[in-house]
Amino acid sequence: IIVATFSSNIYRVQQVVTAAEAVGRKVALVGRSMLNVFKAANNLGYIDMNHNTLIDISDINKYPPEEIVIITTGSQGEPLAALTRMAFSEHRFVEINRSDTVIISATPIPGNEKPIYRVINELYKRGAHVVYSALADIHVSGHAYREEIKILHQLIHPRYFMPAHGEYRHLFMHADLAHEMGQPWDSIYILNNGDILEFKNGTPEITGYTKAGDILIDGSPKSQIDGKVLDQRLTLSDDGVVSIALAVDMRRKRLVGRPIVQTRGFIYQKDIHSMDNEIIKRIKMFINKAAHSKQPLEAVLKSNALRNSLQSVLYSRTERRPVLLISIIEV
Questions:
Q1: Cβ(22)–Cβ(121) under 8 Å?
Q2: How far apart are CA 28 and CA 87, in angstroms?
Q3: What is the model's pTM?
Q4: Where do you find CATH 3.10.20.580 in the chain?
Q5: Per-residue confidence in pLDDT tens, the chain, 331 aa
């Protein structure tokens, strides 16, 4: 049995552990956040279980499948979550088969429906029996209801109130509820992403704005995202790349041999020959013109003049601006 749930839902995890112990099953945890939250909760005494119930996920093959319960992350179909990797047979220790039951103890967060059902479909393809919110009452929201929120406001009586979590409409409805409970509007602060709320002399004030939003990670979390690199990748995906290599006799100011033109993702195969001829023709014209100028040929080639001339040819023929790589070999 594999149960996917939010790692922060400690009570749900406790329910699974208690049920597993009742039928003599061992429990294994999968997913970094599940392991971290469970460890913190257990250290604080929030988990009630026998000392020999929990086993490492690498030890599950030491027990028959009918003696194991796995609690995992990935209830929202996250691409790198443990359940997703299990569904696509990419997990190191868990392989789904026809004897398995997968319980997704969560409801889809709006916007996550497509990846969640993609994972469910893959689980069915592996032969698993899948139980999820559309088929059974296996999840109750962890979010507080309106009356529960009222209780909190009655207990706390905050001097200032800033609703958090959810879209702006949710924040406003929470703020409106607080006002109904006696909170003055001038002590309620509804912030947009990036707004800075700062306390000065005990009084809150929105003092500015900082950049907020998605954080892009390129490979390693330590790597810095370069906007120029992202722009180049976007251009590569849209318009492809053209690579040109040419050998030039700088002393005699002329081409040596025929330039080599290579393209990737730029034009169709049937159009490559004519495009190559057009590019080589433009290069020869450029070299001949530069040879008769007063400037050294090397300086002219190192300027952007050749690049601009070739980009003009490429755009006039295709209305596309590929990444252009020019390699000049001096002979």
A1: no
A2: 17
A3: 0.62
A4: 227-330
A5: 999 999 999 999 999 999 999 999 999 999 999 999 999 999 999 999 999 999 999 999 999 999 999 999 999 999 999 999 999 999 999 999 999 999 999 988 888 999 999 999 999 999 999 999 888 888 887 788 999 999 999 999 999 999 998 899 999 999 999 999 999 999 999 999 999 999 988 899 999 999 887 766 666 656 666 677 777 788 888 889 999 999 988 888 888 889 999 988 888 888 888 888 999 999 988 888 888 887 787 788 878 888 899 999 899 988 888 989 999 888 8
Selection from 118, 5, 9, 125 nearest residue 69 by Cα: 5
Fold of 227-330: Ubiquitin-like (UB roll) (3.10.20)
User: What is the identity of the amino acid at 297?
Assistant: L
Q: Which CATH class is domain 2-131?
A: alpha beta
